[in-house]
Design brief:
The protein is mainly α and 191 residues long. The chain contains nine helices and two strands, in the order ααααααβαβαα. 77% of the residues lie in helices and 2% in strands. The longest helix has 30 residues. The model has no long low-confidence stretch (mean pLDDT 76).
């Protein structure tokens, strides 16, 4: 958590000044690499390096996803971010017993590798579809009314409303992200 707090400003700046999809992809690689390093760690200093990597890598989910959600939703921003954060709690509730079962069946080292692979796949897929703002895709934020029917008919660049499925995808993304981090809650019991 300390690493996350210390690096959040730099990581956030990267997201908003560079290509956010590329930054998200590399943060996912960093997080997955941390789990792989955990699986082969034999000394405490290796755990510390993995913790730093994980703290920096998880920053992409701490600030950027809630910010992106508020960009995509014009009305009810608080509701959307609140629902997303509660969905992340549901993800934790679902993944904790799965993680415990995997650790009991295969050991914590193998479970760390499995978690790294799952996280890498989730972040890679997420980074393919991730956009900080709907305007990059030609949409207006969800809940924002189009100016006039004439603007819609004329093909105004930002006249299309965001499809309703975006809310479902946003909630699923944060549910998945929190699931990815739940291994950290299970390892101390077994390691």
């Amino acid at each position: 958590q300390i690493t996350c707090a210390l690096s959040i400003a730099a990581v956030s700046k990267l997201f908003f000044t560079k290509n956010s999809r590329v930054v998200m992809f590399f943060m996912g690689i960093l997080s997955a690499s941390a789990y792989f390093l955990m699986s082969v760690s034999t000394q405490v200093w290796m755990w510390y390096i993995a913790a730093v990597m994980l703290g920096v890598g998880m920053n992409c989910f701490t600030v950027v996803l809630p910010t992106a959600l508020s960009n995509w939703f014009h009305s009810h921003k608080g509701l959307v971010v609140g629902l997303s954060m509660s969905a992340s709690g549901v993800g934790g509730a679902l993944y904790s017993p799965i993680s415990s079962a995997l650790i009991s069946a295969y050991g914590w080292r193998t479970t760390a590798v499995i978690t790294g692979i799952i996280g890498f796949v989730m972040v890679t897929l997420g980074s393919l579809f991730f956009h900080i703002t709907p305007e990059k895709l030609g949409y207006k934020p969800f809940g924002e009314k189009t100016e006039t029917k004439a603007a819609v008919q004329s093909g105004d660049k930002y006249s299309k409303p965001v499809p309703n499925w975006v809310l479902i995808c946003a909630l699923f993304s944060l549910l998945s992200v929190n699931s990815y981090t739940q291994l950290n809650n299970q390892i101390p019991t077994f390691a």
